[in-house]
């Protein structure tokens, strides 16, 4: 069991570190900044995190959904390899983005997005199932769960999507206080949107209802995660370009889980506030310590494990990769608070 972490807000020193990350040269920043808890050579991007049986499991972007297991939030971490054993017939390749898993009466269910055949590189969302959290997972059925225009026989046609030819990515499960299950996801291209679909108790099929749009942005909004705090719903999302230090984590609140349109957007994790280059893809899970939680996210590192610095043209150095960070997290009513990084 991990030791109890003393709560404290993000250190002011991180601000100084962050100032060196934007608009500088191609070398890593040297000011104090949080260290990643895991930074393998291939990187860890878009972490979907589950705490189960005294371990943390991270599902990440990569070939057939790579996964990792940590004894504590700060590690040590073990590479479990690709957990999606086979590909569905509709998938053009195994280049999976942003998988996430949840336990349901059907077992362990993995949601993932993959490029679909005959869709010009756009993606659909599929479902796979396993008897163990670490897999292997096998596709459920021969059709995707979500695909624009019901391509490949998908249940959800993504009605009213901002860009008709755009695919769907970033699936994230949610269960409300009444036990009803849902799946959130993002529509690709801009304008972009976050949508939600009601699914069955098994989490593997829909209930015949179309998905609904929760929020739309003229720019980029993605990586949704939804949490319920009493009568308030809190939507976490990533904003701006993922491939530089502008990437950030924000949150919106609403008393209607189906409608975040027009709600104020508040910053939760930014480069300026953390010292991490592009802190995004956040997920919140229970800690191994009672009454505590952890927030996991990714950020860009260069030259080892130091936060990347943007080059003069705004791009990142060639050796940039995303690494896994973790921090203490708590709720102040329905307001999320991030404390010390691990």
Automatic annotation (TrEMBL):
- Positions marked as site (Important for catalytic activity, responsible for pKa modulation of the active site Glu and correct orientation of both the proton donor and substrate): 170
InterPro entries attached to this UniProt entry: GH43_arabinanases (IPR050727), Glyco_hydro_43 (IPR006710), Glyco_hydro_beta-prop_sf (IPR023296), TAT_signal (IPR006311)
Q: Which residues form a coiled coil?
A: none
Q: Name one GO biological process term.
A: carbohydrate metabolic process
Statement: the UniProt record of this protein carries the keyword Transferase: no
**UniProt cross-references to SUPFAM superfamilies, sorted A to Z:** Arabinanase/levansucrase/invertase
* Metabolic or biological pathway, per its Swiss-Prot or TrEMBL entry: Glycan metabolism; L-arabinan degradation
The keyword Glycosyltransferase belongs to this UniProt entry's keyword annotation: no
One GO MF annotation is: hydrolase activity, hydrolyzing O-glycosyl compounds
Q: Which UniProt keywords apply?
A: Glycosidase, Hydrolase
One Pfam family assigned to this protein is: Glyco_hydro_43
Q: Which family does it belong to?
A: Belongs to the glycosyl hydrolase 43 family.
Q: Please report the name of this protein according to its UniProt entry.
A: Family 43 glycosylhydrolase
Origin organism of this chain?
Micromonospora carbonacea
């Amino acid at each position: 069991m991990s030791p109890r972490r003393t709560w404290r807000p993000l250190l002011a020193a991180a601000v100084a570190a962050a100032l060196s990350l934007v608009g500088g040269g191609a070398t890593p920043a040297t000011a104090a900044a949080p260290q990643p808890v895991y930074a393998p050579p291939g990187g860890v991007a878009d972490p979907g995190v589950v705490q189960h049986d005294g371990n943390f499991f991270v599902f990440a972007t990569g070939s057939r959904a790579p996964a990792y297991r940590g004894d504590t939030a700060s590690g040590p971490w073990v590479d479990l390899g690709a957990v999606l054993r086979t590909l569905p017939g509709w998938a053009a390749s195994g280049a999976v983005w942003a998988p996430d898993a949840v336990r349901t009466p059907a077992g362990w269910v993995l949601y993932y997005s993959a490029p679909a055949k005959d869709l010009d590189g756009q993606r659909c969302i599929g479902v796979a199932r396993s008897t163990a959290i670490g897999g292997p997972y096998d596709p459920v059925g021969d059709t995707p769960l979500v695909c624009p225009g019901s391509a490949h026989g998908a249940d959800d046609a993504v009605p009213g999507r901002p860009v008709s030819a755009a695919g769907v990515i970033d699936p994230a499960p949610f269960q409300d206080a009444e036990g009803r299950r849902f799946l959130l996801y993002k529509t690709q291209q801009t304008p972009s949107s976050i949508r939600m679909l009601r699914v069955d108790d098994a989490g593997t099929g829909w209930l015949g209802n179309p998905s609904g749009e929760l929020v739309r942005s003229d720019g980029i909004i993605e990586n949704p995660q939804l949490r319920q705090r009493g009568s308030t719903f809190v939507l976490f999302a990533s904003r701006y370009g993922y491939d530089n230090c502008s990437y950030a984590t924000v949150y919106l609140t609403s008393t209607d889980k189906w409608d975040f349109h027009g709600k104020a957007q508040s910053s939760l994790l930014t480069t300026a506030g953390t010292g991490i280059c592009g802190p995004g893809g956040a997920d919140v899970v229970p800690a191994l310590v009672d009454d505590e939680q952890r927030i996991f996210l990714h950020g860009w590192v260069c030259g080892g494990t130091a936060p990347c610095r943007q080059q003069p043209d705004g791009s990142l150095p060639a050796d940039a990769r995303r690494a896994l960070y973790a921090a203490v997290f708590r709720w102040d009513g329905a307001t999320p608070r991030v404390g010390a990084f691990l």
